[in-house]
Every structure is written in C-alpha cells, then in structure tokens.
Design goal:
By secondary structure, the chain is mainly alpha-helical. The chain has one domain. 70% of the residues lie in helices and 4% in strands. It has a two-stranded antiparallel ribbon. It has a two-stranded antiparallel ribbon with strand order 2-3. Helix 6 crosses helix 8, helix 6 crosses helix 9 and helix 7 runs parallel beside helix 9. It is globular, with a radius of gyration of 18 Å.
C-alpha cells in the first residue's frame, strides 16, 4: 500500500489529547499513590473532590475506552474506515465470546471470574474487556508492521502473539492484586493464560486482519498507547 504523510484530522488530535491527559493524570496519581483520603486532604470544594474521586473510581475503564477510540482511529487511517470497523467488530465479538467461554468453563485461560469493579458488565464479562483485547491486539499488530514490515506472515503472527502475551504478563499483577478486576481460582496466574494470549491474539490477526501495509510513515500512536498503559500497570505494582 502506498505510504503517505497526510495530516491528522481534528478528531484524531482531540482523541489523542484526551488519552494523553487522562493517561498522564492516571500515571501521576499512580506514582504519587493518590487515594480518596489524599484528595480529601487537598481542601478542595466538595464538588471538585467528588469529581476527582469519581474519576479515580472509573479511571481505568475510561482509559481503556479512550485507548480503544484512538486505536480505531489509527486503524481507520491505515486501512480505511470500513476495514477498521469490520476488524473492530470481529475482534470485539470474538474477544467477548472467548472471555464468556473462559469464565463459564475455565478454557482456554484457566479458572477465573470477573468482579464488578471494572465498569459495566455484559453477563459475566465487563464491557471494557473486549475493548482491551482490541487495543492490545491491534496496536501490537501495528507496532510489528512498523518495525518489521518485511517479515513473513508467520513471523508477524509470532511477534504479535509474543507482544500480547508480554503485555498481559505486565497487566496481570495490576488487574488481580492491585485492582482485583478478576480473580484466579487458586490465587495465581496459570501459565496456560499466557499461552492462550499468544495463540488467540495470533489467530485473530491470521483470521481477521487485512494483509495491508501501513499507509502512513509516521504514526506513533500504537507505541504511545501501549507504553502509557503499561507504565501505569508497572508503576502501580512497583
């Protein structure tokens, strides 16, 4: 596909700024270990204190939503809007189906269940979870195509699977021990979980992702999205 350097539209700029502001605030609050008690001690107005506490309570699902919006815009810029929508629908439905099966049967990740602390639920699965799958798999794919554009399809699948498994490896302590968004049956993450992430993310790319190169030479949003979220996870568990 021909590469171009077209300027971003206004929606791209607004979406990225919103993600950076929200993610930056989340990273600051994480590093400084800001809690509800900390905010109360700032002697702000009751309305502002309530607003900040509300943002803290729902900060992670909102971060995932903003990351999803930016990720979809990146996909639309590289693939066209129609292809990006098709990819998004397929990934979201597949991810929800996999998670629903996982919660109900323990396959393919191991025995676990979600709590009600990660935003609205659709059955046994938080709505933010399929969005997170889309964010991780899509951005991992674009990072691989950015840095290893000439690799074979099989190598691409392996690299995407590896990036996604590594991402989940950093995410797990944050999500299970710090936030308690989901709970493993025996209290530890089974190795099967990481193997499932590797295989399933590679399969999603193999089955659904268009075999198209990047249309734009410079677009660091996939790197920014992955790095910002990973920094929050890592700092929270440090």
């Amino acid at each position: 596909m021909k590469q171009t350097n077209e300027s971003w539209n206004l929606l791209d700029v607004i979406a990225l700024l919103a993600f950076l502001i929200w993610g930056g605030a989340g990273l600051y609050f994480t590093i400084k270990h800001v809690s509800a008690a900390t905010v109360t001690g700032w002697s702000l107005s009751p309305a502002l204190t309530q607003f900040i506490n509300l943002c803290m309570e729902h900060g992670d699902p909102v971060l995932i939503l903003l990351a999803f919006i930016n990720t979809h815009l990146v996909a639309a810029r590289h693939w066209t809007s129609g292809i990006a929508r098709r990819w998004g629908v397929l990934v979201l439905l597949t991810a929800y189906g996999i998670e629903w099966l996982g919660v109900r049967t323990g396959f393919p990740f191991g025995q676990y269940h979600y709590t009600d602390t990660f935003g609205p639920m659709l059955g046994p699965v938080p709505l933010a979870i399929p969005l997170a799958w889309h964010v991780v798999v899509t951005n991992a794919l674009f990072v691989v195509r950015m840095v290893a554009s000439s690799c074979s399809r099989l190598t691409e699948l392996g690299l995407v699977g590896l990036l996604c498994a590594l991402y989940d490896f950093v995410l797990e302590p944050f999500a299970t021990k710090v936030r308690h968004y989901w709970v493993w049956a025996d209290g530890t993450v089974p190795p099967l979980n990481y193997a499932a992430w590797f295989v399933l993310s590679a399969l999603m790319v193999a089955l659904f992702a268009p075999a198209l190169g990047l249309r734009h030479r410079v677009d660091l949003r996939p790197v920014i999205i992955l790095v910002v979220t990973l920094l929050i996870f890592a700092k929270a568990t440090a």
